[in-house]
Amino acid sequence: MRLQRHGVVVLCGFMLASAAWARKPGDPIKPGRNLFSTYHDIRIGEAAALQVRQRYPVVQDPFLQEYIRRIGERLAATPEARQSGFLYSFTLLNVPQVNAFALPGGPMFVFTGVMNATENEAQLAGVMAHEMSHVILRHGTHEASKAVGVQLVTTLLGAAAAAKGAAAEQLARLGLGFGANSFILHFSREAESEADLLGSHLLAEAGYNPIEMARFFEKLAATGNQGLQFFSDHPNPDNRERALETEIRALPQREYAYQTGDFARARSEALLILAGGERGRGSAVPVPLPVVPAASLQQLQSARFVLAFPSNWTANEDVRLSQWTIAPKDGLVPRSNGSPQLAYGAIAGYFSPTLGRADLGTATLELVGHLHDDRPKLQLSAAPQQRVRVDGAEAMLTALGNQSPYGAPEADILLTVVRPEGLFYLLCAAPRSTFPQLQSVFQQIVNSIRFSR
Ligand SMILES: [Zn+2]
Fold this sequence. Notes:
The chain is an alpha+beta fold. The chain has helices spanning 2-21, 38-55, 62-76, 79-83, 112-117, 121-136, 139-147, 150-161, 164-173, 189-206, 211-222, 228-233, 240-249, 263-276, 360-374, 435-448; strands at 89-93, 100-102, 107-111, 297-301, 305-310, 313-318, 323-328, 332-334, 340-342, 345-351, 379-380, 386-390, 393-403, 409-419, 422-431, 450-451. Strands 6, 7, 10, 11, 12, 13, 14 and 15 form an eight-stranded antiparallel sheet that branches. β13 (393-403) and β14 form a beta hairpin. The longest helix has 20 residues, at 2-21. The chain is elongated and about 70 Å long. Bound molecules: zinc ion. The site of zinc ion has 6 residues, from α6 and α10. Residues 130, 134, 187, 192, 195, 234 line the site of zinc ion.
């Protein structure tokens, strides 16, 4: 009897402990374990922000920058953001992909592609509230704390004390800069849920309907390719909309009626910039550098051929066109209708020449004409075609020129091979300025091609 009672007490104690640990909807959300001080968050963010400004074009249009800043400052005026002690900044970058990120300590960057993809101001504010929540919850340095030990943090103290430029380099080496393998930009699913929940508090306090954040993320996830880059930095938690509905029900009742009234104008100005570069500057959008292709390879196995490509690229089949697109995540740029356009990467597939069993040269020219339908700026370059061999078969390399989705000149290499099932082709494309960096990857893909017998 006594033992039993003791057992009950222990069990109750355990339940109380876990009840205190489990968070109820509407409760505050606090930052997790962190080896860094908030001072380090600020210094790390400053150094990474310098790298961002070197890599991406900042939108020059003062109305658009002001518009993003007005929404950001409304969110930064919420109690949670003020209590964080960070100074937030908001910058619109002219990049067509749907993405946004905030660096430790407060610098936030929004791509013009986000403005194109959102339906209303609450959705745009939702993306920004989610990003601001990563800063408040110090997710960047929290992730880094999990990955690096106390010793590395000590090294980092030295790096942060060094001159600004040197600090950026050293931080990047430690995975704390702005780069493909950085801890400060790649969050866990748990961090994503937290950023959603805290984001909903910020939105509600700012007067925006918080459910719009979940609606936007769910819509983006449903479009597939368009959200590729965002969800690779911010993994999509399950049932986002339902989790947020539960959270919002626990928040104090409010009317969500706030808006600046400038969303429609801002969105159409962003679309103009996306379509034709910035007005008044006249120059094309600078081309972002591609993510360095991984040295390790993975295989594309289709019924009629196999080939190998870098493990940090993906291959997607378009069944309708019976072709594969093989590209890094930032190699695809959405058109204004949302469908992806290849900026760097390759397209592999089969083409049926109308002339039936045409010779390689004739069939290749017909294919170029066919590709031209979808790419009006595509043209043959002056360089002579080259005969090569692929998997023992006779093949041809044709150099082409095009306009990159970034507006800059594009270089294309078209490989063609006559096969019993049609003309096999591999079109390798990149902006001319970055083509040399991808040439060895394209060569590697060509060398790996094997046809089914
Ligand atoms: Zn996130």
